[in-house]
Specification:
Helix content: 40-55%
Largest sheet: 2 strands, antiparallel
Strand order of the largest sheet: 1-2
CATH class: Alpha Beta
Number of helices: 4
CATH topology: putative pyruvate dehydrogenase fold
Number of domains: 1
Mean pLDDT: 84
Order of helices and strands: HHEEHH
Radius of gyration: 16 Å
Shape: globular
Strand content: 5-15%
Length: about 110
């Protein structure tokens, strides 16, 4: 029987399950999901060029915008604008400490 925690764990996409070369690169957990104040991350720096993270993070932002659009009916552009607004604020002045939760081991 599934408990509440199990229902919050994302399902691994079929494409990932089917591809033996798939590798996790980023996991993010919200310890205080209502406030977003406690994020724990596990990062695996698999790309030679760290700039590749710019592409990956933009893809993440677009996926987040799409999810909010489907769940809340907010336009994707409006969600992206809000993400970038706070991204820029956080970039200028950190509001949270970065803790090392460890890295995902690559095989």
């Amino acid at each position: 029987m599934a408990n509440e925690r199990d229902s919050r764990i994302p399902v691994m996409p079929d494409d990932v399950v089917a591809d033996p070369t798939a590798a996790p690169v980023l996991s993010v957990w919200a310890l205080e999901p209502d406030t977003g104040n406690r994020l724990i991350m596990s990062v695996s720096p698999i790309w030679e060029d760290p700039g590749t993270w710019g592409i990956a993070l933009m893809d993440c932002a677009r996926q987040i915008a799409r999810a909010y659009h489907h769940k809340e009916g907010i336009s994707e552009d409006r969600v992206l604008d809000r993400i970038f607004e706070l991204f820029d604020e956080e970039r200028e002045e950190h509001t949270s400490a970065i803790r090392d939760a460890g890295q995902i081991k690559s095989h």
